[in-house]
Write a structure and sequence with these properties.
This protein is mostly helical. The protein has a single domain, classed as Amino acid/polyamine transporter I (Up-down Bundle). The protein has 19 helices and two strands. A two-stranded antiparallel sheet has the order 1-2. The protein is globular, with a radius of gyration of 22 Å. The N and C termini lie far apart (73 Å).
Length: 493
């Protein structure tokens, strides 16, 4: 009886806690965060004279090499790793959800958010390379925490402000390290195991074991191993998914222009949509479209700069341009194609119900005979796995920063050589990798509603210090842009 009562109490407490976490997540990802993120996108776009104009140059630079420059991986490898973490279920399932909740107009606002988000992703990467440092063992380290500590903290006029910016740097690193166990490990492995079970009846334990082994094989090798894997996996999986979308658009060819027209018109009108789609107000379409776009490309979150800092590049602007192309591919291209596929399929097939956004993309792919659904499942599995790899690197960088901060305070009291410090950091990172890999397995076999809420909360808490660094260091971003891009000095160090 005692244990029964205790179990019921624990269950009720967990349900209550999950409800509170859900409410907190809703507050953090509500209109204030959307306004802050989108406002930063627009502010940097205007102040940097629309860096979106240079997207073709950015794409060209992404496939070039700066082998003689400082860094651990090529520019393309850094981009592929960042894309591995951003291209995922948000691009596929998330767009369908946005259409279901906000109407077809949400696709337009999602796309527009990606266009403006290019400027923010550019600024993040620029600061990451500008303020990166070399570790004890020669690795290049950078990201929002270094921009906060050295960029803002280094220029602060008072000790109080220096301590404040150092605290914000540690806050970002801590939230990144914690968030990676949610959005990077458990959520992705759970998505893979659930998909395998629901589609092919594969036991979740089996999927969990296989995913854990594969993840461990790549992650233990560090950033170079992750980059090598992502460099091959990301282009392949993205190309395969786009080919599937193109096939669907060919099948729905007569509905493409009506779908595009409906998407644009629904973004700016309150009229009820046609073709079986529920009408939605402009504000609702904008809310869900913007929120999905922001969540999809991670511009402003501060995650992508963590790998951009490791790129071999002769100056900050070159890698900034390369990183900005990631938002272009992620949202402007893939999310847009997915949105047109979903809306055109709804128009073409009246039997497709729009109430459940989670299955809209799946239903659209099911219209491809024989291979449609397996193609989507394979795409979702590879997307989720690559996201796991990308976020494992982000967590390592956050953990390493916290470890170095702890060691620096410790060496003020005790003497420690650089070799001893490097050895200690390696041990801490080894512990992190083991814990991350274990979380991959745990996530595959448990329910994750609470984990989703926790992940969303920590992602929002990551974004706040990163956005502060972007806004307060916007003058530095402009100066570097003028020096290398506006004066056509991209080839100079």
């Amino acid at each position: 009886m005692y244990f029964c009562i205790k179990f019921k109490f624990t269950l009720c407490f967990m349900e209550y806690l999950n409800e509170i976490l859900g409410q907190l997540s809703g507050i953090l990802w509500g209109w204030p965060m959307i306004v802050l993120l989108l406002g930063t996108h627009i502010f940097l776009t205007i102040r940097l004279h629309f860096p979106q104009r240079h997207i073709l140059k950015a794409i060209r630079l992404s496939v070039s090499k700066d082998t003689d420059s400082d860094g651990d991986v090529s520019q393309f490898a850094a981009l592929a790793t960042a894309l591995a973490a951003t291209i995922g279920t948000g691009n596929i399932i998330g767009v369908g959800t946005a259409v279901a909740l906000g109407g077809p107009g949400a696709v337009f606002w999602c796309w527009l958010t990606g266009v403006f988000g290019i400027a923010t992703k550019y600024g993040e990467a620029l600061l990451a390379v500008k303020y990166r440092v070399a570790s004890h063992d020669g690795k290049m380290l950078g990201g929002p925490m270094y921009a906060l500590e050295y960029g803002l903290g280094g220029s602060a006029r008072s000790n109080t402000m220096r301590r404040f910016w150092r605290m914000m740097a540690n806050t970002f690193a801590l939230f990144t390290a914690i968030a990676t166990f949610g959005i990077g490990a458990s959520v992705q492995s759970n998505a893979m195991s659930t998909m395998g079970y629901e589609t092919y009846g594969i036991p979740t334990v089996t999927t969990g074991v296989l995913t854990t082994i594969l993840a461990a094989t790549v992650i233990i090798g560090g950033v170079k191993s992750i980059a090598r894997c992502c460099k091959v996996l990301v282009p392949f999986m993205a190309l395969l998914y786009v080919i599937g979308c193109v096939v669907i658009l060919c099948i729905n060819s007569s509905f493409i222009l009506p779908a595009i027209r409906l998407i644009v018109e629904s973004a700016f009108t309150d009229d009820a949509a046609t073709g079986g789609l529920a009408g939605s107000a402009i504000i609702i379409a904008a809310r869900y479209g913007i929120a999905r776009g922001l969540f999809s490309n991670e511009s402003g979150l501060g995650s992508a700069p963590l790998v951009a800092a490791a790129a071999q590049t002769r100056n900050p602007v070159r890698q900034a341009l390369v990183s900005s192309s990631g938002t272009f591919w992620d949202t402007v291209v893939i999310c847009a194609i997915t949105g047109i596929v979903v809306v055109s399929s709804i128009l073409a097939y009246p039997d497709i119900r729009v109430e459940d956004g989670g299955v809209l993309t799946r239903l659209a792919f099911s219209k491809i005979p024989y291979i449609g659904e397996p193609l989507l499942v394979f795409g979702l599995l590879t997307f989720a796995f690559s996201t796991t790899l990308g976020w494992s690197h982000y967590g390592e960088r956050g953990t390493e920063y916290l470890a170095n901060t702890w060691l620096s305070s410790r060496t003020k009291r005790h003497t420690m050589t650089d070799a001893e410090a490097a050895k200690t950091v390696r041990r801490i990172l080894a512990c992190y990798r083991i814990l991350f890999i274990l979380t991959v397995y745990i996530g595959a076999v448990i329910s994750l509603e609470m984990v989703w809420n926790i992940a969303d909360i920590f992602n929002a808490l990551m974004a706040i210090p990163n956005l502060l660094s972007l806004l307060f260091l916007s003058t530095v971003i402009v100066h570097e842009t003028r020096k290398y891009l506006w004066r056509d000095n991209l080839d100079k160090a």
